[in-house]
Amino acid sequence: MPPTLAAVAALPQLGLRSRTGPLPDAPVVWVAVSELEDPTPFLEGGELVLTTGMRLTPANAAGYVSRLVGRGVAGLGFAVGVIHETVPAELIAEARGQGLALLEVPRPTPFIAVGKAVSRMLAAEWYEDVTRAYQGQRELTRAALTGPGAVVTRLARLLGGWALLLDASGAVEHAEPAGARDRAGALAPELARLRRRPAKGGRAGAPAEGGQAASLALSDHGDHIAVQRIGLGGRPRGFLAVGTGTPLQPAAHTIVGAAVALLTLQSEGPRTGRDLRASVAALLLGRPGDGPAVPRGPVRVLACAGGTAVLDALESDPAGARCPAVPLDGHIAVVVPDELSGTVEALLAGTGPIGVSSPASEDPAAALREAEEALAAARQTGKDVLHYADLPGQGVIGLLDPALARTFADTLLAPLRKEDLVETVRAYVEANGQGEAAARALGVHRHTLRARMRKAADVLGRDPDDPGVRAELWIALAVMSSRGDRIGHRGDSHSGPAEIA
Predict the structure, then answer these.
(1) How far apart are CA 375 and CA 355, in angstroms?
(2) Dihedral, CA atoms, 194, 199, 203, 204, nearest 10 degrees?
(3) What are the pLDDT digits (tens) for 237-291?
(4) Can you tell me the distance from the alpha carbon of 198 to that of 324, in angstroms, rounded to the nearest whole number?
(5) CA–CA separation, 463 vs 308, rounded Å?
(6) Which run of H or E residues covers position 442?
(7) Do 97 and 43 reside in the same domain of the chain?
(8) C-alpha pair distances (Å), 203 with each of 213, 214, 243
(9) 3-state secondary structure of 155
(10) 371, pLDDT greater than 60
(11) What is the spatial distance between Cα 365 and Cα 344, in angstroms, rounded to a whole number?
């Protein structure tokens, strides 16, 4: 809930003083500053309006107050010491007579201070709601490990009300507290609307064609009741009903939505097992294309090094559930419909290196070989995900033996390192032999660069302007810039900012 006017006025740093007696618990949704005689066209209601009374006169005080009251503002803050030394008596009298809370704002308190204070209070309230919703979702998730009944019990306690889980016919499966079971009879006439399929693309709770809905809200004996469908298909697998003494706030709606999602996942579990059994039967009968869980059309094979974490990630998402996986020697192969490849790659991100094949329609075995080759390259180069089609772009240094490559690089660069010329040569190579660009990168004059490069040629005994020499230098620099036991650079060998000034 937004902060109340009384809470705002109680902030000691603002020094606000009520001129109309005890302040109401009216919520303050925002602060609006206006010197207009009629600011109401720019207000929505619930604001604390601040003014210096620039256009206020004894004659128009009554109409001014009347318009603010009609708009439903939370209160009026009047600054003294700017236009008026004190709050006009006519304004105080009209505010008291018409029921408008009037606050005196002292001269040292700028209006921006009031606005910032209310903004901070609103932010704190929003953060509290988010924290409450997050904590509620965590508690419901833990309860879901025990079963639907535990979810219903936890939900009722989080809301401070009651909760019912009904089956598709409207019979009570779980009730918290037990006395809430008696409310099922009153809900029965309302469930017919929820038994119809919601309109395609409609949001939860929104009426669909013919009065159909995915959720509904009603009042009964002082309780505010919300009922939602459980299940994903055209026919609901059940209903969740909750009741509270006051309307549900946004955080509570989020918690109820989490409970519906968890109960829906639990209700859909048997369907997943049914699809798996159908797929196995289709394979045994030699008709894999008839299995509902067997991917159709072009597929990709993912070779994943993440072990059981890969299987856990697949089971956690509906997209992953559509992808058969089999443990092989040193990795897990996952068959993924081509249109889900990006989704599943993101799902498995962080489980370990992944090699991805090209799309295959007729030879999944060839796709497996591609995925395994891509996985081997990903392991060597340190990539999280590597597509077989991208292998040529990994560069020649990715094919080098790390130990031999480092020996070659260390030997070639040793004379430059001794003369502190490595970064000069690096800048020159990265600039493709363009002295002006290399000098700018190093922050030195081109004559200085030229002198250093002459010295580099002397200590190398080779000409860095020769394409073959420059290519060898590029490879050596790239190898020495690689970290760990892997070599993996597409073309930049720059490991950090140049150190020569």
Answers:
(1) 4
(2) 10
(3) 788 989 888 887 778 888 888 888 888 887 765 555 555 555 555 555 555 555 5
(4) 31
(5) 54
(6) helix 435-442
(7) yes
(8) 9, 8, 22
(9) helix
(10) yes
(11) 20
**Which tens digits make up the pLDDT trace of 132-177?**
888 888 888 888 877 888 889 989 888 888 999 988 888 888 998 9
- Helix (H) or strand (E) segment spanning residue 413: helix 402-418
Per DSSP, 182 falls in state G
Domain that holds residue 474: 398-480
Closest Cα to residue 38, out of 86, 71, 83?
A: 71
Instruction: Pick the more confident residue, 126 or 98.
Output: 98
CATH number at residue 261: 3.30.450.40
Sign of CA dihedral 376, 380, 383, 386: negative
Q: Quick one: 231 and 135 in the same domain?
A: yes
Nearest to 364 by CA among 286, 299, 302: 299
Q: Amino acid letter at 369?
A: R
Vertex 350, ends 143 and 298: CA angle to 5°? 100
357 and 403 co-located in one domain: no
Closest CA to 293 of 309, 304, 277, 314: 277
Clarify whether residues 318 and 338 are in a common domain.
yes
CA distances from 287 to 183, 278, 301, 326 (A): 50, 11, 21, 19
465 inside domain: yes
Which residue type does 264 have? T
431 and 309 within one domain? no
For 138-295, strand residue ranges (E) read 162-167, 172-176, 215-220, 223-230, 238-244
Q: What is the DSSP letter of 220?
A: E
Amino acid type, 317: D
